[in-house]
Amino acid sequence: MVQLTLAKALNDGLRAAMERDSKVLVMGEDVGKLGGVFRVTDGLQKDFGEQRVLDTPLAESGIIGTAVGLAIRGFRPVCEIQFDGFVFPGYDQIVSQLAKLHFRSQGKVRVPVVVRIPFGGGIGAVEHHSESPESLFAHVAGLKVVACSNPSDAYWMIQQAIASDDPVIFFEPKRRYWEKGEVDLDADPPPLYASRVVRPGRTLTLAGYGPVLKTCLEAAAAAEADGHDLEVIDLRTLSPLDLDPVVESVRRTGHLVVVSEAPSESSVTSEIAARVQQEAFHSLEAPVLRVTGFDAPYPPSKCEEDYLPDLDRVLDAVDRSLAW
């Protein structure tokens, strides 16, 4: 067991995958000599060379398009998108090529590409640096979409994503990069596409992913002082959604609050609310409530603390659900 930051856990996971398979390549803007703006790829070019850790031009469409070609030739590219809002020049390549080639070729072509995207707010950044675009990718058939929330998952999930024969959009909570946690390097990790109960409880189910998972755990600890025993579930996988643990939990608690930084309309949280109410309607004692970012462009950094779901907003939703 070791203590690692989330960023270092990702670095170690990338390193393990590259040592295991010489076909694994890392590519993106400033991933080599600089080691990435968040230093997630620090030291990899030095140890594996410029042929396997490639500094690319500032051209997301070119990064993804090149990765598609490399994957067809048998490589396993890992593309870094420097910030979430920079992904859109490469969006066409992702949804029109990366997501479709396996289906279009009737299973003959595999495109094992991982697209790493630091996402979410909370770092005081400028425009286009604090987006939460996960719902856009979760809606695209042919893509897998996952989000780590802690160093242990970061270490294991990045390796599992790289080993997958499917294209994976890998979301990383950038404001959690420097937070530490325990990583068992000898553990048997849970499956990649599986949700996980991280805190058992009986009063209400609280589900989230990525950067808000810590907020959910803080809310559960605060609610305990009021006699509420909250169960917290880390969704981890957004496409395919693994809602079995959520539905099972709701059948016991009768209440569900879902938390996400993304806007609420037409979102992952919308899908969760719809499906849980469909599958566990008679167990619910209150409607599924959501605590999300607002349906507006991400604000200037001075205002972001008012935009992001925080402890007070989550606890308010818990109180409203239990008082229904």
UniProtKB/TrEMBL annotation:
Reply yes or no: does the keyword Cell membrane apply. no
User: Which SMART domains does the entry mention?
Assistant: Transket_pyr
Could you name the domain of life of the organism this protein comes from?
Answer: Bacteria
Matching InterPro entries, A to Z?
A: THDP-binding (IPR029061), Transketo_C/PFOR_II (IPR009014), Transketolase-like_Pyr-bd (IPR005475), Transketolase_C (IPR033248)
Q: Does the keyword Lyase apply?
A: no
Keywords, in A-Z order: Oxidoreductase, Pyruvate, Thiamine pyrophosphate
> The Transketolase-like pyrimidine-binding domain covers which part of the protein?
4-179
Cofactor or coenzyme needed? thiamine diphosphate
Molecular-function annotations in GO: magnesium ion binding; oxidoreductase activity
Name the PANTHER family for this protein.
PYRUVATE DEHYDROGENASE E1 COMPONENT BETA SUBUNIT, PYRUVATE DEHYDROGENASE E1 COMPONENT SUBUNIT BETA
Protein name per UniProt: Pyruvate dehydrogenase E1 component beta subunit
